[in-house]
Amino acid sequence: MLWIWALWGCTSSEPVFHLGYFPNVSHAPAIVGVETGKFQDGLGKVALKTSTFNAGPSAVEALLSGALDASFLGPNPTINAYAKSDGKAVRVIAGSTSGGAYLVVSPDVVTPADLQGKTVASPQLGNTQDVALRHWLQKNSLQTTETGGDVRILPQENAMTLEAFRSGEIAGAWVPEPWASRLILEGGGHVLQDERLLWPDGKYVTTHLVIRTEVLRDRPAEVEGFLRGYLDTLEWMAANSDQAKESTNQGIGKITGKPLPTATLDAAWPHLEFTSDPLPESLRTSAQHAEDVGLLQLDGVDLDGLYDLTLLTRIQAE
After folding, report:
1. DSSP assignment, residue 299?
2. Boundaries of every domain in the chain
3. Whether the predicted model's global pTM rises above the 0.85 cut
4. What are the pLDDT digits (tens) for 256-278?
5. Staple partner for 81: which of 21, 60, 184, 213, CB 3.0–4.6 Å?
6. Structurally, what CATH architecture does the domain formed by 101-201 represent?
């Protein structure tokens, strides 16, 4: 499990803002905000400390334990954190990314039915792509081995998925960028399902900014400073796309030990839209999908309370 902590070097008296994110192109605004120093600029005298993760459920554990103050997360782990805490622990304060997830399969798979008897990977049980994969199989009248069918889902780290795909151990994977492009360019795969085609206007939340409710309540100046730095990051990225790509790859290289090949990054980048809009309707649909496949029980928890966009609205109005 990729879970890299960078919490050392701070004293107990030093104010610190702990942030989580992933070394994925779908988390480019987080990576760029860290790399360019814009997050730190927004926080001022509050130190920024970061931790990176392979997938959402691990980041949720860190949020719920208090190890993180905020994290960039996909919708399904966010919903789980909210539901587990009876709507108390977390709030979405801004959007981040739409798009950039695909089901990539081997050349011999040309229809959903061709996945019968095969193994397909996802980044982690219960993460956003895992839910999307399970719901898509269900909609295509395919059952997983867990429910008596013969399509096996293998949740694993994305780097392991690439190697398993190359070796023929798996027939495909539902993954975010850059892994989808890597499976195509390095593994010889092709897209069986572009997730954009499953959503109205091709828009769906892949990543948004989630904060612990306690931090939002007790440390509003820190949160506002960080959010201002984040919105500055989005504005800079929109005006400097090539530099933003370079900054993203630099950050990925620092985290994983190896930057992406230029061809991979160039293929992945146009598939993503970076936006502060949290696209709440797509999150509600994702919640329904997670319930449909048995990975979530809302038990009457109202998802409307998940969003607190007060600061975002005020800053944007300025």
Report:
1. T
2. 3-98+202-317, 101-201
3. yes
4. 999 999 999 999 999 999 999 99
5. 60
6. 3-Layer(aba) Sandwich (3.40)
- Rg of the chain over all Cα atoms, to the nearest angstrom: 19
Does the pLDDT at position 12 exceed 80?
no
Structure tokens at 90: 């977390």
DSSP assignment, residue 171? S
CATH superfamily to which 3-98+202-317 belongs = Periplasmic binding protein-like II (3.40.190.10)
- Rounded to whole angstroms, how far apart are CA atoms 42 and 92? 19
Residue 56 confidence (pLDDT):
84
Strand order in the sheet with 16-21: 3-5, 47-53, 16-21, 70-73, 205-212, 90-99, 272-274
Question: Is residue 178 reached through a cis peptide bond, with omega within 30 degrees of 0 on the bond before it?
Answer: yes
> Do 205 and 278 meet the contact criterion of CB atoms below 8 Å apart?
yes
